[in-house]
Amino acid sequence: LVQPIQKMLKGFSPASYEHQVQAMIDDYATEDLLPQITCPTLVVHAREDNTFPSAELEFIADQIPAAQFTIIEECGHMSPMERPQAITALMRLWFKK
């Protein structure tokens, strides 16, 4: 898992990384917009993700009228890299709806 992440990070320019960090610092308040999302939405949380607490993602799912909240076990913030088969299976089920 470390090598793919290192490769990905090497692809970021310093300006791109700075922009991402600044966006997190600015913490844009978008909660008011969540109820306006009208399409079916899958909100996924990785059980071991310490970046975003489960409660925050559950809140997001609760605010979106057609949202479904699910948790992927045994992975963290990089769940597509950590458990690609689980993510793929989840997405396939979701898109069949």
From TrEMBL:
It comes from Gimesia maris. Signal peptide: none annotated. PANTHER family: HYDROLASE, PUTATIVE (AFU_ORTHOLOGUE AFUA_2G14860)-RELATED (PTHR43798:SF33), MONOACYLGLYCEROL LIPASE (PTHR43798). It comes from the Bacteria. GO terms for cellular component: membrane. Residues 23-84 form the AB hydrolase-1 domain. The keyword Hydrolase applies. Keywords: Hydrolase. One of its GO terms (molecular function) is hydrolase activity. This is Alpha/beta hydrolase. Gene3D superfamilies: alpha/beta hydrolase (3.40.50.1820).
